[in-house]
């Protein structure tokens, strides 16, 4: 059974930083691209970023491109999202998503999400 467990969310002030982690189990971690997807209160899902199976390529939504960094440590079966210069608009539940092999747009499995709140 695929399991994805996010951690690292919390309350942070505008302009602050936060690092999210996602540990995967029940599958071969380095067989899949991975993504972060978020959902703000009352809004739909928004893709944030993706990383290739080996970390060799990364992609970002335009609004996050210069502030967020996605990475992965396949030896630890862990995906990361380093977020900086956070804004109130970044308040959302952040989900770790496993892709179907390396098709980053085919979202196969989801974590339970971790809440990020940006507020003073």
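-> sequence recovered:
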């Amino acid at each position: 059974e695929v399991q994805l467990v996010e951690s690292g969310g919390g309350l942070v002030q505008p302009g602050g930083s936060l690092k999210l982690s996602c540990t995967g189990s029940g599958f071969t971690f380095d067989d899949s691209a991975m993504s972060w997807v978020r959902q703000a209160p009352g809004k739909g899902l928004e893709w944030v970023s993706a990383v290739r199976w080996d970390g060799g390529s990364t992609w970002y939504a335009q609004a996050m491109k210069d502030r967020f960094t996605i990475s992965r440590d396949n030896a630890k079966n862990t995906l990361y999202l380093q977020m900086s210069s956070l804004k109130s608009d970044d308040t959302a539940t952040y989900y770790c998503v496993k892709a179907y092999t390396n098709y980053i747009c085919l979202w196969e499995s989801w974590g339970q999400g971790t809440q990020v709140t940006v507020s003073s």
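The radius of gyration is 13 Å.
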